[in-house]
C-alpha cells in the first residue's frame, strides 16, 4: 500500500471528532491493506513503529525535512519499513552520518504531506486520535468480528499488529482461536478507569474487591519449574534486574504460574519509596546485587492467570482470587477486602493512604477487567 493513502486517512481521522467515524475510516483502510502490511500500518498510526526506537533525534529529522519534497507519491509502506529497519540497526563510529544519509534519502522521496507525517512519527508526535482502543475496534469492524474477541486475542498475543494480520487473513475465526495463554509469552495488562470517589467506583456493582493501589512498577511473572521470567507492563523482560522476585516466586509450591502484580521499594518502616526510586532498580544493568542490598524490592501480587497447566484468564475474578490465596502467602499478596459496605471500604482506603499508598483499586468480582481506579492521590 502507498504511504500516501495511510497519510490521507490519518489526516481524515485527525479532523473527525466522533469515535465511530474514526473507527469507520480506519476499518475501511484496514480492509484495503494486505495483511502482511498491517503491523507496519498500525505501528505508524499509533506512533510506535514496529522497530521501536530508531535512534533518530530531532536535529536529524529537521535536517531531513529540508530536502525538497517529491512532486508525486511513490513510497510504499514497505519502503518506509525497510528504511526503519536500517535505521534501527545502525551502529558504530559513523552511525550518526549514516542515519542522516538514510533519512535524507527517504525524505527526498516523500511528498510534503508524507514528510510531515514521517517527521511526526519519528519524534513521537503522531496525534490524530487513533488510540489503540480505536484501532482495535476498527480492526474488529474490518474483520467482521466482535470487538471483545479481538480485544482478548490482543491481550493474549501482546501485539495488536500481529492479531490484525491474522484476523484479516483468510480464516478469521480460526485465527482468533489460535491465541491462548502461554507461559513465557507475556500478555498485555488489563488497565483501569478512574473514578472521582470511592462511592462512585462502588456504585456500578457490589460487592467488589478493594485493594491497595501501589505506586510501584507493574510486573507479570511466569514460572515453569525452576525457570522464572519477569516482564514489565510494556512486556519487556527484566528478570535479571529483580532477583528477589525470581527467588520468591521460585519458592512457591507450584510447578507453573503466571502472576500479575506490582513491585515496589519500601523503606525500613514499611512506607513506600517514590515511584522514581523504585524505578532505579530497572535502569541499572550492572551491580544488581549491590543495588538489591541498597534498595530491595517487594513483590505484591493481585491476580493469577495460570496455575499448573490450567488457564484462569477467563474465570471470574472471585475464582481467581481464591486460587491466588491458595497459591501464594499473604505476604506476597496485595492487601484486599471484598465488601459492599461503603463505610468499611472507606476505612480500608484511609488505612492505605495513611501508610503512604495512592489509594485503592475497585474491581468487579465477576469480571476479568478492573472496574475503576478510585485512587485519591491528592488525599495524602
Structural notes for this entry:
The protein is of the alpha+beta class and 380 residues long. It has two domains: 3-172, DNA ligase, ATP-dependent, N-terminal domain (DNA ligase i, domain 1); 198-379, 2-Layer Sandwich (D-amino Acid Aminotransferase, Chain A, domain 1), CATH 3.30.470. It has 17 helices and nine strands. It has helices at 3-15, 19-32, 38-46, 58-64, 77-89, 95-108, 112-122, 132-143, 147-157, 160-167, 172-177, 198-202, 243-250, 275-279, 288-294, 317-327, 342-354, and strands at 208-213, 217-224, 227-232, 256-265, 297-307, 310-311, 336-339, 359-364, 372-373. The strands form two sheets. It has a five-stranded antiparallel sheet. A four-stranded antiparallel sheet has the order 7-1-8-9. Strand 8 (359-364) and strand 9 (372-373) form a beta hairpin. It is globular and about 65 Å long. Residues 368-380 have low confidence and may be disordered.
Topology readout:
Layout: H1 3-15, H2 19-32, H3 38-46, H4 58-64, H5 77-89, H6 95-108, H7 112-122, H8 132-143, H9 147-157, H10 160-167, H11 172-177, H12 198-202, E1 208-213, E2 217-224, E3 227-232, H13 243-250, E4 256-265, H14 275-279, H15 288-294, E5 297-307, E6 310-311, H16 317-327, E7 336-339, H17 342-354, E8 359-364, E9 372-373
Antiparallel strand pairs: 1-7, 1-8, 2-3, 2-4, 4-5, 5-6, 8-9
Helix pairs in contact: 1-2, 2-8, 3-10, 4-6, 5-6, 8-9, 9-10
Amino acid at each position: 500500500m502507498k504511504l500516501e493513502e495511510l497519510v490521507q486517512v490519518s489526516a481524515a481521522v485527525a479532523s473527525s471528532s466522533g469515535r465511530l467515524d474514526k473507527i469507520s475510516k480506519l476499518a475501511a483502510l484496514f480492509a484495503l491493506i494486505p495483511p502482511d502490511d498491517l503491523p507496519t500500518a498500525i505501528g505508524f498510526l499509533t506512533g510506535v513503529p514496529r522497530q521501536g526506537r530508531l535512534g533518530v533525534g530531532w536535529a536529524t529529522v529537521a535536517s531531513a525535512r529540508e530536502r525538497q519534497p517529491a512532486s508525486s507519491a511513490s513510497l510504499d509502506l514497505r519502503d518506509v519499513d525497510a528504511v526503519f529497519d536500517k535505521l534501527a540497526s545502525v551502529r558504530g563510529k559513523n552511525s550518526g552520518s549514516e542515519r542522516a544519509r538514510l533519512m535524507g534519502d527517504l525524505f527526498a522521496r516523500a511528498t510534503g504531506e508524507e514528510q510531515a507525517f514521517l517527521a511526526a512519527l519519528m519524534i513521537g508526535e503522531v496525534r490524530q486520535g487513533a488510540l489503540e482502543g480505536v484501532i482495535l475496534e476498527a480492526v474488529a469492524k474490518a474483520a467482521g468480528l466482535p470487538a471483545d474477541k479481538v480485544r482478548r486475542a490482543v491481550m493474549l498475543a501482546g501485539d495488536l499488529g500481529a492479531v490484525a494480520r491474522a484476523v484479516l487473513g483468510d480464516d478469521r475465526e480460526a485465527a482468533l482461536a489460535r491465541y491462548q495463554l502461554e507461559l513465557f509469552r507475556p500478555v498485555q495488562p488489563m488497565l483501569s478507569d478512574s473514578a472521582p470517589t470511592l462511592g462512585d467506583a462502588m456504585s456500578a456493582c457490589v460487592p467488589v474487591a478493594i485493594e491497595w493501589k501501589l505506586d510501584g512498577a507493574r510486573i507479570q511473572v511466569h514460572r515453569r519449574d525452576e525457570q522464572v521470567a519477569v516482564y514489565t507492563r510494556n512486556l519487556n523482560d527484566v528478570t535479571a534486574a529483580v532477583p528477589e522476585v525470581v527467588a520468591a516466586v521460585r519458592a512457591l509450591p507450584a510447578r507453573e504460574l503466571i502472576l500479575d502484580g506490582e513491585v515496589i521499594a519500601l523503606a525500613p518502616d514499611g512506607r513506600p519509596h517514590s515511584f522514581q526510586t523504585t524505578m532505579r532498580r530497572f535502569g541499572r544493568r550492572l551491580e544488581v546485587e549491590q543495588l538489591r542490598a541498597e534498595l530491595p524490592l517487594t513483590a505484591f501480587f493481585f491476580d493469577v492467570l495460570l496455575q499448573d497447566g490450567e488457564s484462569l484468564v477467563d474465570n471470574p475474578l472471585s475464582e481467581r482470587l481464591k486460587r491466588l490465596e491458595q497459591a501464594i502467602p499473604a505476604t506476597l499478596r496485595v492487601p484486599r477486602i471484598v465488601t459492599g459496605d461503603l463505610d468499611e471500604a472507606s476505612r480500608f482506603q484511609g488505612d492505605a493512604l495513611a501508610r503512604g499508598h495512592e489509594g485503592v483499586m475497585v474491581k468487579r468480582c465477576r469480571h476479568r477487567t478492573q472496574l475503576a481506579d478510585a485512587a485519591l492521590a491528592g488525599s495524602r
